[in-house]
Amino acid sequence: MNFITEIIENGNGTMLLLLPFLLALITAFIAFPTIIFIAHAKQLVDVPDKRSVHSKTVPTLGGIGIFFAVAIVLTLCGAFLDAKLLMPVVGALIILFFLGVKDDILILSPKKKMLGQIIAALMVILITDLRITTFSGILGIESIPYFLSIGFTLFVFILIINAYNLIDGLDGLAGSVGLLVSLFYGFLFFNMNEMTLTVVSLALVGALIPFLYFNFSKVRKIFMGDTGSMVVGFLLAFQSIAFININQLNPLAQFHLNAPIIVLAILFFPLLDTLRIFYVRVVILKKHPFSPDKNHIHHHMLQLGLKHWQVTLVISIASTSVLICTLLAQNLSVNIQLLLVVMAGLFMFSLPFFINYSVFNKRIKLNRLLKKINKTNLSRAK
């Protein structure tokens, strides 16, 4: 154990945790204006089409700023915290960074992107041995054999990375979800005294705040791009699996029996949207699961008349509510918790549509009443 970890664990160096956050924040704020200028100068921008929710050309290289901010923090902190854990993560991020930049500029085939994601995930799984070792009794399943554990952990990595990529279709949505999820994990890791993982969470939070500032800007707007969605999605997957692994290996941990349920609650929105969009595309529309369309949950919320920031706010509130419900029910059996998470999540993310339906019906009834009044007035006038 090094001296910085000792200082923090003794309760005398909590303020030191602000350093990685501030370093990522300042690095990103400095990087984004330069990236935006270069992207416009070299025409490395997204041209709006019929699927776009924007009307102007926008740079798509926001992931570069996010990557550099996070990579600088993790590289510097790796010398003082758990280098064995952080260095493989940095190596995996470098792989995803170059794949993402090539895809944002030249377009990369889905197979090559998937291969890169698999290599990056396996690098972290095999070197750090961070993996899901048991299903914690969910559906009666307990321990998992070693190779099956590696395969399932790899599947979870790829699922979360691509689920996060699929929600990147609205100003502020992907950035806000990434920020919220990392805040949740940062709080949990800090309470678990896992300072290395807390630094990972804070670094991502610090990088995403400047991104959201420019992502919402009308003058100097920038998109996350595939670089950003893969880098952020990978870090969210890493935090999720690390949270499950640490709790499963410690019988005295607060979330020893329900860590996978907590992760499901935290990531409920991107996982729900991915499952729903795959069902709509494959089963209903008979299309390729990765074919682009406007059937995402956030697209339907826009159709309700909500603005971009309002959709992001609704999804953030719903996600927080699902996590709170899960934490309140953590003393129940794991399968009951699973049922409650699914029910709470479906209810919270369906609520805006139920409210809109109710308002729509009231408007119809009001219009009918006004028509009756007008007819009555006309008949009396005659």
Which short descriptors sum up this protein?
1% strand, mainly alpha, PNAcMuramoyl-5peptid_Trfase_CS, globular, 382 residues
The total of beta strands comes to 2
Helix content: over 70%
Total number of distinct structural domains: 1
The multimeric state of the shown protein is: single chain
Hey, roughly how much beta strand do the residues contain? Answer: under 5%
**Which structural category fits the helices and strands?**
mainly alpha
Topology order in helix (H) and strand (E) letters = HHEEHHHHHHHHHHHH
Number of helical elements: 14
Question: Regions with pLDDT < 50 over 5+ consecutive residues?
Answer: none
Distance between the termini: 93 Å
| Radius of gyration, CA atoms, in whole angstroms | 23 Å
**Main β-sheet: number of strands, strand sense, barrel status?**
2 strands, antiparallel
**Sheet with the most strands: spatial strand order:** 1-2
Binding site for Mg(2+): 165, 226
EC number: 2.7.8.-
Enzyme class: transferase
Protein name: UDP-N-acetylglucosaminyl 1-phosphate transferase
Walkthrough of the structure:
The protein has one domain. The protein has 382 residues and is an all-alpha fold. It has 14 helices and two strands, in the order ααββαααααααααααα. It has a two-stranded antiparallel ribbon with strand order 1-2. The longest helix is centred in the C-terminal third of the chain and has 48 residues, at 334-381.
